[in-house]
Amino acid sequence: MAGKMLERVHSLRRPAQFGGGGEDDAEDAGDESKTRKHMSVVMRATNYLTRTLPGGGCLCPLFLVLSFLLLLFVTSLVIRSRCSVCVGSSAYDPVSRMRFFGYEDPDSDFGSLGVPWCRSKHGKTVEWTSKDLLKGLEEFVPIYETRPIKNNMYGMGFDHSFGLWFVARWLKPDLMIESGAFKGHSTWVLRQAMPDKPIVSLSPRHPEKYLKKGPAYVDGNCTYLAGKEFVDFGSLNWGSVMKKHGITDLSRVLVFFDDHQNELKRLKQALKAGFRHLVFEDNYDTGTGDHYSLRQICDQFYIRGGGHSCFKDSDEARIRSRRKNFWEKAVDIKELCGPGEAWWGVRGHMRDDFNHSNKAITYTEHFQNSRFVESVLDVYWELPPVAGPSLTHQNRYDPARAPTPIVEDGRFGLFQRLGLTGLENSVFNGYTQMVYLQISAQKS
Q1: For residues 86 and 83, what is the distance between their CA atoms, to the nearest angstrom?
Q2: How far is CA 357 from the centre of its chain?
Q3: Which of 14, 35, 70, 427 has the least C-beta neighbours within 10 A?
């Protein structure tokens, strides 16, 4: 009984995207004129001969056999030509693949499997609008083209580079902190946003080490706690660091996490230190990723777009199974759900430290984590994809679990005007739901 109820809730919270039915289908079924318009050539010829041949329209057996064979031949040609076109284009065009598998409208495909989000204490949201994002994109594209690390494999792509630059540019912090620097691309992005402000960079390996093998970025106005001087974010005496940089107002500090650590742990550490503005680069979706993320924590049944059905015959199972055919990072029920139909985190596990720590947690613990996040959260804003897959040709993240993009599918003119057509397709494949948070302590 409980299983059926959960499945009913799961089906109701999403619009019907993939089936037939509806008022349009009902009208088509009752409209004879529409049926006549789609009558085949063979049927028209048969009807004509039936009316004109002598004998009251009785066709000879030979003509019936020939008509049937002709119909089979024409039908087979049509099917073969359609399949060859669909399969050929699906090798490189995600939208063609969507249509091949029965998804007619790429725009409405976004969010069709739900987009979980974290509820804030007072329902506040960010100040910027879609117009601000579009204006920012127009400014950022030529900046991004000057990046020192052209091939940032395993690092941020265009979407998150823009998101970090935009948030930093909007907030105008007096100090920027990053936990996890890799080759220095994120340091470069922060520097483009705020040319004259100091940066503190924490990373187990110093970015200069990568210079021996290829492009990297080392900033002259950055304090590196890296290599032998590395200190983990949660172990650092942030009071002394703030004093050294003359920072008295911690709301003037932006902290950027790209260190693949449990985001609940990082949130608590940042809260303890008194920071208010955080950005998490890899806000992995439920069932994916190497660490416990805010998106996973807030993926709850009581939130619209949250919760999952682990029934093998559910709508979600069928849709997810189809999507595995053309989105590289799509997750089916077998990958989403663990023992006992555990769907939170990654198959019921709380991952941490690049998946070196993998702890099973109960749903009760998972639920309590979400309530704690809600108690300290003032603003939660998840970066939308920069553009739809028909424009970027990305094939990794599943649009069904992402919010509507800034530049929607079909708006090629805008995509071109913003200068996005000049970028390589590969730079759009790194989207993992970057999120900006504003936090404050719980009220006693």
Answers
A1: 5
A2: 25
A3: 35
